[in-house]
Fold this protein.
Amino acid sequence: MEKRRLISENDKPIRIAVDAMGGDFAPAEIVKGAVLAAEHKGIEIILVGIKKEIVKYLPQKDTSHLPIRYVEASQLITNEENPAFAIYRKPDASIVVASKLVKSGEADAVISAGSTGAMATSAIQFIGKIEGISRPAIGSPIDVLAPNTILIDCGANVDCKPHQLLSFGIAGSVYSKKLLNIGNPKVALLNIGSELGKGNQAIKASYPLFEKSNLNFIGFVEGNDILCGRADVVVCDGFVGNILMKFYESIGPRAEEYLKVKIKGKIPMIGPVKKLFKDVFSLTQMSQTTSIGGGLLWGVNGIAMVMHGNIKAEQAARTIVRARDTVNADVVNYLKEEMTKINDN
Amino acid sequence: MEKRRLISENDKPIRIAVDAMGGDFAPAEIVKGAVLAAEHKGIEIILVGIKKEIVKYLPQKDTSHLPIRYVEASQLITNEENPAFAIYRKPDASIVVASKLVKSGEADAVISAGSTGAMATSAIQFIGKIEGISRPAIGSPIDVLAPNTILIDCGANVDCKPHQLLSFGIAGSVYSKKLLNIGNPKVALLNIGSELGKGNQAIKASYPLFEKSNLNFIGFVEGNDILCGRADVVVCDGFVGNILMKFYESIGPRAEEYLKVKIKGKIPMIGPVKKLFKDVFSLTQMSQTTSIGGGLLWGVNGIAMVMHGNIKAEQAARTIVRARDTVNADVVNYLKEEMTKINDN
């Protein structure tokens, strides 16, 4: 397993189609991040977008030795647009063109900081889904406090049906096994109580499906169980997952702001104390941008990854490097196998 | 306004029916908490439950001078029971008997750490609802990091309809005005994006209702906006609110656990540094048990409050004192007035 995650000398580089135009700080930060990523071993970057815009943001230093190519795409889908309509009306959108590169085999992965909905819709439309999956989901470890716990779905789907939640559980289980090396991941449904009969309709209806599956299903967990490792995979609707993830990430910075005012002048913020506080305030960050597989759209028949809309260059570079590792871990084929087992049940 | 929250010498004591049997550590911790609360000005405690069990947990010292009465109730509703069935089948349950004391005017408030569902159902059944409210909701300020922001509903309702979410917005707005003294509270719907068209069906359908209302509606906010004060009232389904609240409360203790291992021996945990860390780890606690109005079932035609199931004596005492202040703030009548205005629109 571990071997899959390393790039051997003989491996061909992993070709990653980067949507240069998507994101709050695109193209600037995405282009800078892609250049940083291109300096890593085993990566070839395909920057997709309006080339004359993209090149403005290349670093001053010579980048001609780096494995970076350009594919022209004249259009852009914004967050405000309905993904399905937008993809239909803008066939030359960067996200569409980038997804098609995976479909045609010209790229091994596509990655975007643009609209999550547009990325998901485009991936489904042009790369396709794994059999048995009705909608792909985003899974992410909960760094730093629970890096071995996967939260899935982090925001690709809302109003999920029980069979969709089950497919998230399967994807999360594969994530846990193949990328975090957990042998028999404990899978739980996120709920407002641990007793049977608690919860909303979708969660109550999902329980028997999970129980019948061959997942290592441990039942319901509550909000306060997420960080304590009771479950390795915490399954939820993307509405809940997205709110939780964004809330979690806001706590560290908010606590820092709060304490800066409160302790001003009282504690000398020097040396190890300063360092320690810096660590404390960075405890609450999700791995969508830091961990292997973070931001992957699980269920797409290929590697399609989303990044935070507000991502900056260095994080973008890390995510692109993670995309390489995710391709090498061959998770799409693993998930296909797992889905077959479930369907055989 | 402020005057309402103070107890004048001439005020009659506020009579609080405490469900002595509900809660993970009941009756011990509830009884101890009630005795502590009875030492406060302007409070009369009515302990409801099995008296011969209750008296076992009275403190050794003489309590005969304290305003404590007992009302016998022979049954108990557990978390595992369906609230509606349980209330029907157990007419002598402590929660039922305590609620009826409010209905009959023998108590000014009822409070329980037992099943939230049983408390809500019992309150609706025996105390009744305010006109225009279909289901009561739990609102709570987000102490310590956002003590002026109300999250509502924190877990009394799931699968909420748009008109229910609107009534939570109205209740939250009254909370903010009357208990936090915010003049024109900004009300927002919690969503996974700020753009129109984002979100699940219930949230999307709620938007026009909020827009038409006379609330100071500011639109959608996301998970990362909750703590930053963008909205004074954050409205959500109780499924989301309950998970968020429990998750939030788990972060401080989890961070402490994490850091204890990490910094062992590296930083001397003495004096102000130790104190500061203690403060940091208690930053994430909801006010259900600490703030005025925290845990109130907004929409019940009387004061009915829930406490955390795992509450201990001192917190329980604080919540009972808060119940007194909530009665004095006359929030039920304020909410009735606000509901009338909405219905007149």
